Every structure is written in structure tokens, then in C-alpha cells.
Amino acid sequence: MAKNSLWIISYDVTNNRDRSKLAAHLEEYAIRVQGSVFELRSSKALADKIFLNACSMISPNENLRMYRVPPPMLKDCRNYGLGMEIEEESFILL
Fold first, then answer.
1. Cα end-to-end distance, the chain, whole Å
2. Average pLDDT for residues 49-57, to the nearest whole number?
3. 5: enclosing H helix or E strand
4. Domains contained in the chain, number
5. Does 88 fall in a domain?
């Protein structure tokens, strides 16, 4: 696996306090691309740490997901509108 990968993190959290804490945590490391979707470029170790910390902030009845976008697939990613271009080494995504 490449040293840094693109990670997509999304959540569906109904509790306002938990959602605010989770969003603040993710904003420390990642770029918000939608209301509850973040992009991070990091190592697997850091992404796992961020994810585990995020899990501790919400109830198991909520939904938190993280996906790795393999480097060869970045060429197939598309963006339209105000979002940043997806580049291989330009920024951190979670």
C-alpha cells in the first residue's frame, strides 16, 4: 500500500452533540467535501487512529464509515463544481 492514501469518511449521526464533536475531530485532519463527508490523505496507521477515535465519540447505533481509494483508482475520480481537484499527492482526505 502506498505511504499515503486517499480515505473517504462519512457519517450519519442523529445526536447533535455527538455529531458536532465528531465533525470537529474530523476537521482537525480532513477536508469536509459535503455536510457529513470528509476526504483525508494519510497513512493507514493515521487513518485507523482517526477512525477509532471517531468511533469512541458516537453510539454504536449511529453510522460511521471509512473507505480507502486505491491510488490506481484516483484517475477514475471525478469532481464538478466548487470542490478541489483530486490529485495524487496534493492534500489530506478523510
1. 17
2. 97
3. strand 5-12
4. 1
5. no
